[in-house]
Amino acid sequence: MMRRTAPIFSVATVKNLIDGKFTESKATKFYDVINPATGSVIAKCPQSTPEEMRAAVENSAAAQVAWRNTSVGNRVRVMLKYQQLIRENSKQIAEILTEEQGKTLGDAEGDLFRGLEVVEHTCSMGTLIMGETVENVSAHMDTYSYRQPLGVTAGICPFNFPAMIPLWMFPVAITAGNAMLLKPSEKVPLTSMKLAELALQAGVPAGIVNVIHGGHDAVNFICDAPEIRAISFVGGNAAGEYIHARGTKNGKRVQANLGAKNHGVIMPDADKDHALNSLIGSSIGACGQRCMALSTAVFVGDAKKWIPELAERASKLRPGPGNKNSDFGPMITKEARDRAIRLITESEKLGAKVLVDGRNVTVPEHPNGNWIGASVVTDVTTEMPCYKEEIFGPALVVLTVDTLDDAINMINKNPYGNGTSIFTSSGIAARKFQHDVDAGQVGINVPIPVPLPYFSFTGSRASIRGDINFYGKQGVQFYTQVKTISSNWNPKFKNTGATVNMPILGKDQ
User: Fold this and answer.
1) In the chain, which residues fall in CATH 3.40.309.10?
2) Which interval of the chain is the signal sequence (predicted)?
């Protein structure tokens, strides 16, 4: 393994976190953590052993008993300290994230900040977790409900947002009174470990956040472990479908955000500069590795005249190392890069035109990086591979239609429904679009319509499995269960004998 001259993480082999202790795994199988800009191995990530995973989940269950009885005010105080520590360490976290994932430092800071916003929102848990009360539903009888934690929960995280996605999960779960067993992506485990380290410093008790590592074996363990009541997952469709099926079969709640094909609709009355810049930034930023990237542009009517200018602007963007002054970084793996290139090439053979071609881009100072340049593919039809599959690379697929109705029909026929945007100066068009389109997140003149944590990250159709969404009020609902109490404190109970009839609440006795 390559020795780093200026390490930003203290270990070469990533450790498990069990019972508040970072411990070396006894694994026999390890995954290389590779800097995608240089091709260098920067750490080894273990496939945690069955004994280690079982110890982690049993410890989580034991620790949660006391934590659930900790006052919500004291749990919130831990989160207040946690958000402070994240802010104080934000530059170091961004550097770790950039080294293992490849995105630019500015984008890494944005990744972290959007997760930090969720941490801040958990500091309202006293309000978010409130139940309901109705007095005198019947004579001397009150009914009230409150939310209780589930117990042990689990989070399975993707590679593309090493900070934001874990922070969507464990801060909400534990502030609601649960414990969480976290499994970061084996490609980018270092950011999660730093976030876990800061959580311990903030006062999260030992065992309330445990971290294990691995691939399929770790996923299967999480799906099968009887102590785990709920699973949160963000990632690709194949894995998400599998986790949802296996987890729910075992009686667990599962929320899974899956793939996407997000369309950006450009109306002829849109602000041209804003629309074109938004398309380029959303599709090319983060090397296109965002589940909310506007990877598909739909130009309506005369707006198609702007396509050459779109291509000209996109051609000026250059990939490079994230810790340099680059427009965007590398793909996460060579396999991901090769797949993106294949989808473009196959579509070109079917008649698509590659106006901006990033397939052969190189970065001379880092020849082993997973480089692909900005690409714009036009004359695309809905039957081409670059449209039917999520490229998840810095490529913008361009289609044209005659009317807004045509654009909406195209979007609604696509199996995915993660998000979409429209660029227009017409309130009538915007309102029609937001009402008729079938997507979880809708932007109006907004390129990446990811909602702030006062709301929830939603989705539609093949982009989601499970019916309760991430963070916000729905996130709290996912990690809690409702208990309803009906109490009768009649000052003078009457001896009317036993009755076999169903009591009629609301009828004064």
Assistant:
1) 263-444
2) none
The tens digit of pLDDT for each residue in 61-94 reads 999 999 999 999 999 999 999 999 999 999 999 9
Q: Is 45 a catalytic residue?
A: no
Fold of 16-258+463-484: Aldehyde Dehydrogenase; Chain A, domain 1 (3.40.605)
Of the residues 45, 157, 287, 291, only one is catalytic, namely: 291
Gap between the Cα atoms of 205 and 67, Å rounded: 8
Helices 307-314 and 272-284 sit at what angle, rounded to 10 degrees?
50
Find where tokens 């397939």 sit: 359
Give the orientation angle of helix 216-224 with respect to helix 50-68, to 10 degrees.
40
pTM of the model: 0.93
Q: How confident is the model at residue 272 (pLDDT cuts 50, 70, 90)?
A: very high
Q: Is 22 helix (H, G, I), strand (E, B) or coil?
A: strand
Cβ atoms of 137 and 143 within 8 Å: the answer is yes
Q: How far apart are CA 74 and CA 56, in angstroms?
A: 24
CA separation for the pair 97, 119 (Å, rounded): 18
CATH number given to 263-444? 3.40.309.10
Helices (H) and strands (E) in the chain, counts: 16, 20
User: Cα separation of 248 and 255, whole Å?
Assistant: 10
User: Closest Cα partner for 386 from 357, 335, 346?
Assistant: 346
| Tens-place pLDDT, residues 224-240 | 999 999 999 999 999 99
Residues of the chain with CATH 3.40.605.10: 16-258+463-484
The CA-CA-CA angle for residues 137, 138, 142, to 5°, reads 50
Task: Say if residues 257 and 291 touch (Cβ distance below 8 Å).
Answer: yes
Pair type for strands 296-300 and 228-234 = unpaired
Compute the distance between CA of residue 475 and CA of residue 182 in angstroms, rounded to an integer: 16
